[in-house]
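Progress against Task 2.4 (sequence-to-structure conversion) is shown through the following example record, which the project officer requested during the mid-term review.
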Amino acid sequence: MAASSAEKTKWMRGPSTPLRGALLGLLLERPGHGGDLANRLAARLGETWRVDTNDVYRLLEQLENTGLALSRDEPKRGNHRRTHLVYHPTEATSEALTLWMETLLPREPVRLGLQAKLSVARQQDAPRLLIALRAYERECLLLAQMVSPTDGQARSWAALYMECTREAVYAQLQTEVTWATNTRRRIKEFSEHST
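Structure tokens generated for the chain above:
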């Protein structure tokens, strides 16, 4: 019996969907153990993503539970006495990746921690908010320097998608810096006028 449309997209729910989708793509390129896949994911997504190996194992387990990955105990390279779990794509992996590529994902909320603080801040919290905003601004500027796009022309498909990813991250970071700067300015102006 064929899976319903809702069953086919169930794995695309939740905030980890982009990582699960990227893991499917990596599995189709070549199988790997959790640590290998976490390293490949971090290399592809860049420094602005926080890829934790434990999270990758959890996501791989979720993909396996939905039939989109399959794990097998395989000998470690160079040490055939020891084994590790190696994840492989299934027959459904390619179709799921195609479906994910075609699906518009909901816009992820940004700066949630700062927004939560702002939403309940008292006026006496302004100095602490200014410090947090300045730290966030510095972090975004540092990350933007790390991913600033090049002006060169991509010579391969891999170079093209990496450059496009860097441009998207760079633009988002620039927007975050602008937001943090404007929010700091507005808090300062309000504090100066209300005293």
